[in-house]
Amino acid sequence: MEVMEENHDFLKDNREKQQKFMNMESVGTPNPLLLDVVLDKVFELLDLPNLLNCRLVCKLWRDNSGLKTTMKKKSVVSLRGIFLHTSTTKKNICNYFLHDDIIYTRYYFEHISYQNPLVSKVFEVMGSTISILQLHLDLNQLKIDQFRELVYERVPNLEELIIYNLSHEEIYYKQIFSDFPDHSTHPKHLNLKRLELQETRSPIIAFMTEFLGTLPNLHEITLKTDVCSDWTEQAEMWRQNSAIVKSVIDGLYNSESFRTLKVFRCGKLLTHHIQTLLEMGERGMSLESLELHVPPKETEELFTQFLSTQSKSLKELVLFEQRALPFRFKRVPGLPPSKQDFRLVLPDKMEQLELLQFSKNYKAWMVPMKPIEYARQTPKLKTLILLGKDGFGCISDYFGIPSKAICEVNSVVSHDQVSDPKLADMLHQTFPHLTKLCIRYPSPQVLTALWSSCTRIQDLSLYLRDSEDFSYMDDAMTGLDARIIGYYLSTVSKSYGHLKRLKVLGNQQKVTCSIVNLTDLRSLKIFVDHNENDERQVLSDATVEFALSKMHQLRLLELYTLHWTLGVTSCSFFSQMCCERLKKDLELTVIRFSPGDGQDHDAEALDYDNMLDE
Amino acid sequence: MALVRVISSDGAAFLVSQRLAKRSGKLKTEIETFRKSSDNSEAQPEIRIVTIRAEILRLVLQWLQQHQNDPVLPANQNEQDGRGDAEMGQSQWDRDFLAPMDLGIVMELILAANHLEVKGLLDITCKLVESKITGRTVDEIRTAFKLKSDFKGNEEEQTRLENRWCVEN
Predict the structure, then answer these.
(1) How many domains does chain A have?
(2) B66 to chain A: which residues are within 8 Å by CB?
(3) What is the crossing angle of helices A232-241 and A243-253, to 10°?
(4) From the list A10, A22, A590, which residue is nearest B87 (CB)?
(5) Domain residues for A38?
(6) Where is the F-box domain (chain A) (predicted)?
């Protein structure tokens, strides 16, 4: 007995004590719901609509600092960004921005030029709080001197600048951004760390060189170029000259900012670009993340040399083929890549490398690699991503030289239609630590083999998704039925008990069949394909009844609907009644439905983009 | 077994093992202070808690006893882990423990848990309060927690207007 009560008399007059609370204020006991320490804790647990309600209860609650912080954390509220693109009325601008001490959400302007006095006013009032700015040059009608005033004077604390259409047809021919006047006498923008150029097609070399020269602390450059441009002439120009990359690389080469550059994502590089990068590497550039289109064949050696200069810093390397080449055949397992193919040769040692990825899209080809000894050459490698049509077809490239040393890789992602059971053995031999696996259409044989060799797998993502173009062929090709997957999954969770997280993509019948019996799961994420024409309810109530409500170990359930172009869409999953029942049955589970709360939802959508990149 | 005598505001005394008492941050400090100031290491410490009445103190001790073997959670865990642990921490026992209490008792329990620095108990009681706020109207919240609106003039309307900016879009 740890607690003993010495007398019990004190319980006699309970009712009177009860009264005490009712008259709390009069007897001077503080109401705990007026104490900051209690309020902070309670507010942290509430979601946005309820928090807003709480602001109306009394002044003390409204002004509670915990409530304010939590609100900022939980809402899409952002004091940080102004995005100059979508529509809003002039009246709204007044409402949103010209009050003191209010909480601003993200707002968008479209077709509002910078000359608009209201927009100027916004920058006057908010300017110093803005850290992200997104400009659509074709819509903002920004002239070069206005651009300069905006970026350098109005938003001194800007950290991230996203520019759309820097070389829009009109802008290009009007030569608005042909150069950056007075750049040498111009003050430097010390806070700007991230620059993203979207839909940039034509060369703006002089401008880029001079602009980058004023950004000494730039950490990250991302270039996204629209290859499938409707503006054919420019698309062709891009292909031939890779103009924008040239602009940026030349710009970097002539400025100081290359020294601080950590992340570089770009498109196609030509031989002389690789040469330039190598020179920059030798002069001291150390990248942490590099993402680029597969370099030309003749730069194989040069590229390896460049990588050696980055061997002490590079953590992520992503190579990809921009689009599937129609003339290439799928590689036969065991056959070396053709003589025309660029082949990645990693240097002797990449000390920091954690992620290695060989394509960005499962419809594209994968970049071949000279087999490596992971444990020695990439001692810190954790994730290997093999999206792409070849998939495990060129398995010998990526599975490398077996070695006795232990390799750290614990996560492999593949989008191949996996049917060769030998794969499981190879996975196990090369990556004995594998705990995360993501595969598309595994055959029953592969699954069986996986369960017997890779017993550490805890986190499995299965893509049971019908691809839009070949939906009727997929099952025929692999001979796979979701029921079979369901059967194998339930076997594994019974016999190994390791499977804790499962992510399933597929249509509703497949999903239901595959998760039934998985009662030991701790976390489950379901993406369901959704067409606009479909009924609004995307998973049947039967799914709840037969599968979900029995998962008593489940702590996180995430349900998202995906539209093939819109991404994550909003939709109801079950009937209202069923939904309530599910919440009751799974009392301990955190359930998230799409669209979910702002930030998480963004993260999910991004994650999905990275996986499929359609 | 080393004991400590804990006395409530209304004079009821509880003999508690020191091991258990030390799971309360406040009692732990008190016991240590007593040790330092007392010459006799065998002496039984006596701690008077002037802000907590017997009925509430008993509930706190009861909760501590039930959770005596839980791992002590670090106070500054990050948001995500915190949520996970709170989910895990609320056992069936906790739910049964809180179920019969009226809000008045819960309020007192929150104060007590806060005063005695019992994090786990504070977590579950706050969670209960949260569930009472969620989905209620402003008036219902005021009534439930005996809070008075102290907005003057159009201040409440003003706040309501501010709220609109957040929910739009």
Answers:
(1) 1
(2) none
(3) 50
(4) A590
(5) 26-73
(6) 36-63
Mean pLDDT of each 10-residue bin along chain A, 614 residues long: 53 43 45 76 78 83 78 44 40 44 39 56 66 69 77 80 72 70 75 81 74 86 62 50 71 78 79 87 88 86 92 89 58 67 88 85 74 83 74 62 58 60 75 74 67 71 49 37 55 49 59 64 70 59 74 75 59 73 76 50 34 29
| CB pair distance less than 8 Å for B110 and A38 | yes
Q: Is residue A36 part of a domain?
A: yes
Cα dist. A32→A22, B97, B124 in Å?
13, 20, 15
Structural domains in chain B, sorted by start: 3-70+84-148 (3.30.710.10)
CA distance B12 to chain A (A): 6
Mutation pick from A56, A77, A555, A556 vs chain B, by most beta carbons of B within 10 Å, is A56
For the whole model, what pTM was predicted?
0.55
Nearest residue of A to residue B20, measured between CA atoms = A2
Indicate whether this complex's ipTM tops 0.95. Answer: no
Q: Does residue A37 form part of some domain?
A: yes
Q: Which of A140, A129, A86 is CA-nearest to residue A104?
A: A129
Scan residues 39-58 of A and list those with Cβ closer than 8 Å to B. Answer: 41-42, 45-50, 52-58
Give the ranges where A63-186 is alpha helix by DSSP (H): 65-74, 90-97, 117-126, 137-140, 144-148, 169-174
CB atoms within 10 A of CB A239: 15
Q: Is residue A62 part of a domain?
A: yes
At A80 the pLDDT is 32
Percent pLDDT > 70 in chain B is 82
A244 domain residue, yes or no? no
CA distance B70 to chain A (A): 15
Residue (of A216, A284, A213, A298) closest to A248 by Cα position: A213
Q: Which helix (H) or strand (E) holds B98?
A: helix B92-98
